[in-house]
Design brief:
mainly alpha; Formate dehydrogenase/DMSO reductase fold; two-stranded antiparallel ribbon; 2 strands; 1% strand; globular
Length: 291
Amino acid sequence: MAIERQSTWGGLVTIDMFLGGMGAGVFAIAFVLILIGGMQEMTLMGALLGPVLVIVGLIFLFLELRSPRNMYRVLTGFSTSWMSRGALLQTLFILFGLIYAVPAFFMPDWFLNTGGTIVGIIAFVLALLTAAYHGVFLSEARGVPVWSSPVLPVASFFTALCSGLGLMLLLFLAFVGSYPDYEVAAISGLMALAGIVFIIAELIILWSLLSSRYSVTFTESIKTVNGPVLSTIVCLVVSLVILFAGLWVGGAVYMVWTSAVSGLLLLGSSYIIRSAIIKAGHYYPLQVPMS
């Protein structure tokens, strides 16, 4: 009996998960950098883009749902549906994320106020939960072995952080000329260290996913996406090497092209792995013997 690919979720859900994860990741990274201090305009832009990207992702999700009836179920099924809980979680993140980021454009000391810090901490926690949510949501599909893997929520979490860092590196490229060299060096070093940690964690998780043998269906499903997963690993390894080299070489010119290349590789690998996980949603159809 041949395995069949699920037909419930398609490309629009992949885009939702990619944008939602990236938005959560870039906000979490921006918040930490704001607390540390340095390159404030760049970190403020990252904090603002976080909830905006989640909004755009939810638009793609609702387009995938198509019918108003399905949308109504998402908005009312909090007691039974992880999609409904995820929609609520992301809505709260959008709310607190915007309350944290928008006032800073008009009140430069907003981030230093007690109120701003409290709102930021709440938004930060919601961002981390959002980063893991998509994996939790898919893991509830017990009939689809790859999706129900226990490592999927962790994979979703670090994929979100990698894509968020990728976007932050591209923002760094856009703002690098506006700050003194010492400030640029400090922030770029922190982001490089974070990237190394995130990438190593994601590589370990991908190895765990690929080496797992939960069932024949799981193994056969993974084989259908070997190409995209290999491409993801190559992108991550190349980005890891670049970031490692950046910590030793340094220099403004090197940091500029490092940010561009690493940022694009992290974004590309994050989208590819999100798409691969959706495409790996195979199952054995239930057959009832006729007698």
